[in-house]
Structure prediction request, 224 residues.
Amino acid sequence: MSSPARSRGNDPGEAARAARAAWRSRQLLDAAATLMEREGFQGVSMQALAEEAEVSVGLIYRYFGGKDELLLAVIVDVLDTISTRVPEAVAAAGDDPVEEVAAAFRAYCEVVDERRHAAVLTYRESRALSSQGRVKIKAMEVASTEPLRAALHRGTAAGLLVDLDADLVAHDLVLMAHGWALKHWYLEQKLDLGEYVAKQTALLLGSLVEPRRKRQYAHLLHPH
Prediction:
């Protein structure tokens, strides 16, 4: 009879293999995002991907079925990370909907910053995906904005925000976040990520917070 320590869930060897697989997958996704953003999806071969990641072509095929599947995985990875980190940020912000909106936007920008090459691919190369892949990505993008929409609705209901189109504002915030990746070559000359987030938060919330409530959110509307 095997001991509990040797059960599948507690097998050190199994855990080590899973960790190696996760590390290798991360390595391949990062290399693919960097190379595809630089060369374009059509201009990238599996051999070039292997050289970028410093692995064999055969190893790539152990993890992904081909270049199309790898592109989809790169974009899904960004959206999965957003779908985890943004709700966590909202939960940590407390019960104030305006603080939740600011925290969600900051988390979105942080993920975009960490995955800049991949974020750019969602705009430049999504047309290269299969129709099924595009449907999946669109659904994930809409779902990723839900924490923002929900916080905006709560802010309006509480009288903290003006009457607004929550869906439109949520997508405006997402576009602002992706703007950090799309125009990073220019923005980085003037701002670091923290400054970008603070200025964009102030710009948008300045038009959304109820005038009589603005003093309450001076730290967001007038960043130092």
User: Anything to note?
Assistant: The mean pLDDT is 90. The two ends are 64 Å apart (CA to CA).
